[in-house]
Design a protein that fits this description.
The protein has about 240 residues and is of the alpha/beta class. The protein is globular and about 50 Å long. Bound molecules: zinc ion (ZN). The site of zinc ion has 8 residues, from helix 8.
């Protein structure tokens, strides 16, 4: 245990963090839906913070066009499954962390099972379809979900606290199926920035350290560095969390 704490000394000396918050991280599991530019950065920082376990779902193989933003990946391994490449990156960042990797998309029939036992879920898939499946599973399983996304120089993040704050279906009622998965621009430093903020929110939810977002959305525009907080309202008629 002494060597475990040694690695995290610099975060444990923050005011109101200490051994107590560190042990909460060690005893927690986080589900990460997508380890692209955003979710991959979140996963890397949670691994380095000493999270006990990551459960990761990301389908498909590495392509050259992923390499402007995906820090867990490797230019020498184009064509290989991304979940397999990420395992090697995690071993270097935190060899003691438990890992569960799934080379799958988030579907209505598999998502609730994937997130069971996790304290927080991160929504970072490129399609609304998979995000909405994760949202519904998180509300059903009563697991807080951090919803984060980016487009060009802008990004947002909010937390779905099931039956307490707005869920993704409260926000976007219709199922969006015409979203072009690879049609939007990404500067890696922007997806990485919102990925880091998502990791901070996960640490806050797990440890009680600092002040999580609650019912507010955080929005940032990195073209001018402006940020804002927007109060989100639940939809009482939401088909996922209403009634
Ligand atoms: Zn809802």
């Amino acid at each position: 245990m002494e060597s475990y704490f040694r690695r995290y000394k610099r975060q444990m000396i923050m005011d109101n963090f200490g051994e107590e918050a560190q042990l909460k991280l060690k005893n927690s599991s986080v589900f990460i839906g997508g380890i692209g530019g955003l979710g991959g950065t979140t996963a890397a920082y949670l691994a380095m913070a000493g999270i006990g376990k990551l459960v990761i779902a990301h389908s498909g193989n590495l392509t050259e066009t992923n390499m402007n933003r995906q820090i867990l990946m490797d230019c020498g391994r184009i064509g290989e499954p991304r979940v397999e490449i990420a395992v090697d990156a995690f071993k270097k960042l935190n060899p003691d962390m438990e890992l569960e990797m799934h080379n799958v998309r988030l579907l209505p029939e598999n998502t609730a099972e994937l997130i069971k036992g996790c304290q927080v879920a991160v929504s970072a898939r490129p399609t609304f379809y998979e995000r909405k499946n994760l949202n519904r599973a998180c509300v059903q399983e009563n697991i807080p979900m951090i919803e984060a996304a980016m487009d060009g120089m802008t990004a947002y993040m909010f937390t779905v606290n099931p039956h307490k704050t707005a869920c993704l279906d409260c926000m976007v009622e219709k199922d969006v199926n015409d979203w072009e998965e690879f049609g939007f621009g990404v500067l890696g430093a922007v997806s990485g920035t919102i990925g880091c903020l998502t990791a901070i929110e996960a640490v806050k939810i797990i440890t009680g350290f600092g002040e999580p977002l609650g019912s507010k959305m955080f929005y940032m525009d990195m073209s001018n560095y402006r940020t804002k907080h927007i109060e989100l309202k639940r939809n009482p008629d939401c088909k996922t969390c209403g009634g």
